[in-house]
């Protein structure tokens, strides 16, 4: 596998991305690499149009490979040049657009906060207020994880990635008042597992209180501290995970929406765009590769 050049690109590794950025007038290109439980790796390029404001329930940690990436985050317009990284916290609204007519390309790592939580040993999730991180501040093994997105991650490598991500977040986060307070992780994890296994079923707050043994206020507060989002939004994102799998397998959007538990295709489309910054149709059209 080639090394990173000074322009942020990998030697011989981004020919497809460069071809997309050359001689095109507009559009998206998305290519998923190999992932693991709690980890997705993606290569993307945008020309002309950008992503609408949206928010993930994962950490999004990416590196700009070509062009200039701009995005609004926490009320400010940010810029990433080739070689710059960005670190976005779960549930923080952001967009994404080319800073020039040439467009931009990047690779990104989406990491489940639960995996980060395990690497942190039960501490509340760190928050990185300044999302732009310079290349020199990212450890080489984490850079290699995005250089080699098509190489499978085994169980040990998955743990290594989680530890590297947790280290990056803690090194660039500001201390929070009460940030060392303990969380009821065993109880919270029961709720998380129930929703993950069956996101189609809507659970009442009384049922979640009974399952966790926590009162509703403690459950809501600690679930967000532990996993970066609310139980309700966590369920919606698991529904959308199911929609994405179905769409990639060729299921029509209407059927995918109903199978994932949405009221109808229109409801699913609204939630999809809020989560990924594009409609299901645009997302599916932008996919390349296996």
Automatic annotation (TrEMBL):
Domain HTH araC/xylS-type as annotated: residue spans: 189-286
Renumbered residue ranges of the record's region Disordered: 1-26
Keywords per UniProt: DNA-binding, Transcription, Transcription regulation
Record's keyword annotation contains Transcription regulation: yes
Highest taxon in the source lineage: Bacteria
UniProt-listed InterPro entries: AraC-bd, AraC_XylS_family_regulators, Homeodomain-like_sf, HTH-like, HTH_AraC
Gene Ontology terms for molecular function: DNA-binding transcription factor activity; sequence-specific DNA binding
Transmembrane segments annotated in the record for this chain: none
Biased composition (Basic and acidic residues): 1-18
Name under which the protein is recorded: AraC family transcriptional regulator
Species annotation: Planomonospora sphaerica
């Amino acid at each position: 596998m080639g090394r990173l050049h000074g322009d942020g690109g990998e030697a011989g590794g981004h020919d497809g991305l460069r071809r997309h950025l050359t001689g095109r007038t507009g559009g998206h290109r998305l290519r998923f690499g190999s992932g693991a439980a709690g980890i997705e790796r993606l290569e993307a390029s945008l020309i002309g149009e950008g992503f609408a404001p949206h928010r993930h329930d994962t950490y999004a940690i990416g590196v700009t490979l070509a062009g200039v990436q701009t995005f609004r985050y926490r009320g400010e317009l940010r810029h990433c040049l080739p070689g710059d990284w960005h670190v976005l916290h779960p549930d923080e609204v952001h967009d994404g657009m080319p800073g020039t007519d040439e467009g931009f390309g990047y690779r990104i790592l989406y990491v489940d906060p639960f995996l980060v939580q395990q690497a942190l040993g039960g501490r509340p999730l760190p928050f990185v207020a300044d999302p732009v991180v310079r290349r020199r501040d990212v450890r080489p093994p984490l850079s290699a994880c995005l250089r080699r997105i098509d190489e499978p991650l085994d169980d040990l490598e998955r743990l290594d990635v989680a530890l590297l991500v947790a280290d990056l977040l803690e090194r660039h986060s500001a201390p929070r008042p009460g940030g060392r307070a303990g969380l009821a992780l065993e109880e919270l994890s029961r709720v998380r597992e129930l929703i993950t296994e069956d996101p189609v079923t809507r659970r009442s707050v009384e049922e979640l209180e009974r399952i966790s043994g926590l009162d509703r206020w403690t459950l809501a507060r600690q679930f967000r501290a532990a996993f970066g989002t609310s139980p309700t939004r966590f369920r919606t994102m698991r529904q959308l995970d199911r929609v994405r799998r179905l769409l990639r397998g060729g299921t029509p959007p209407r059927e995918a929406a109903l199978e994932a538990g949405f009221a109808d295709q229109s409801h699913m489309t609204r939630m999809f765009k809020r989560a990924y910054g594009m409609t299901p149709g645009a997302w599916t059209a932008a996919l390349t590769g296996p």
